[in-house]
Amino acid sequence: MAIAKQSPMKGAKHLIQAVGLVGVAAALSAPALSQAKSVVCVWDVVGKTGDVYAASTDYALAMQKQGIDFEIKTYVDERVAVEDFRAGQCDGVVATAFRTRQFNGVAGAIDSIGSTTIVKNGKIDLDASYDVVRKVIQIFATPQAGKLMVEGNYEVGGIFPLGAAYPIVRDRKINSVEGLSGKKIAAFDYDKAQGVMIQRIGAQPVSVDVTNIGPKFNNGFVDMVTLPAVAYKPFELYKGIGTTGAIGRFPIMIPTVQVILNRSKFPEGAGEKSRQYWLSQFDRAMKIIQIAEKGIPASAWDDLPADSIPKYVLMLREARTDIAKQGLYNKTGLNIIKKARCSINPTDAECASKTEIE
Asked: What is the pLDDT of residue 9?
């Protein structure tokens, strides 16, 4: 029986096709040699010219040196940044704790009303209040607190203070809690605790977000907003303050931005390294805050009556515990913050008990 001969060219063609098929099969079955970079979505109210964005780009470079590589994607709408993170379009997000509290309640507790405020000799001690914030961030950055920084697949990657949030009014005659009765006060609708507190003092909460809080105040739709000095220029609050309004020198809280990471998208240990990095940036944050406060005209500030300050601090404390009982603040977080307060101001009467809330 004769065997048909195959031409060299035809045999080579079949060999190439076979090799090609083997190559495709290998590519499909083998793990990818390279992986797309992770993406961290960063909210900054002024976009790429803002301080949060600048701090986040330095963060990315610092993490890269530790073998943790990711890209930064900027947002001016915080809601969209957080929604994209939840949808898996981002592997990490940098946003206010009001928004990130849903991913970690312990860390989010630092943004609860009055929780970091220190009063000494009847006066607000702002430096000591910032010491409380620093202390809490230090605690959260320790390996021992690692488990508290994780909820499910989410991990806190750092905390960066925005500065004391002050009551800002269109009419400086409103310089007491009693004077706010019946007034319209801006409340972020995604932070239910704000609405509860506003109703508690007999005022009317008006729903806002970071995209419209400035215009609503400036155009008279609300009588008061509570914001840090870093918001004064971007939100053009001087328009709403005008010649009749004022910024009350009483910190309602010290809000923060927080980094939340999808643990499955980052190497083991990335969260702790990230928290340590942001702890190292605390003094940078303080410089930003100090510059912002110095940039506000002296005439815009207004001191509350001295005898009212201890009363207001107690009022905030009682409101804070009641709000926690409603499940809006994390109890473990509040107790950690109380320990930090009492380490800074141990003679305060509240330090007679170990916990803020059981």
From this structure: 46
Cross-strand partners of 246: 169
pLDDT one-digit tens code per residue, 301-352: 999 888 899 999 999 999 999 999 999 999 999 999 999 999 999 999 999 9
State pLDDT tens for residues 26-59. 444 444 334 578 999 999 999 999 999 999 999 9
Q: How confident is the model over 279-294, as a mean pLDDT?
A: 98
| DSSP label at residue 260 | E
The residue-averaged pLDDT of 114-137 equals 96
Please report where in the chains the tokens 């005439």 appear, as a residue: 299
Dist. CA 148–CA 106, nearest whole Å: 7
Q: How many helices (H) and strands (E) does the chain have?
A: 13, 14
The pLDDT, as a whole number, for residue 286 is 98
- Strand intervals (E) in the chain: 38-43, 70-75, 92-96, 119-120, 123-124, 150-151, 154-161, 165-169, 184-188, 204-208, 224-228, 246-248, 256-262, 301-302
d(CA 285, CA 96): 14
Nearest in space to 230 (alpha carbons), one of 48, 52, 95: 52
Give the pair of three-digit tokens for residue 120.
Answer: 């000494």
For residue 19, with 0-12 CB atoms within 10 Å meaning exposed, 13-18 middle and 19 or more buried, which class applies?
Answer: exposed
- Asked if 268 and 168 count as a contact pair (C-beta separation under 8 A), the reply is no
Q: What are phi and psi of 180, to 5 degrees?
A: -85, -5
**Radius of gyration (C-alpha) of the chain in whole angstroms:** 26
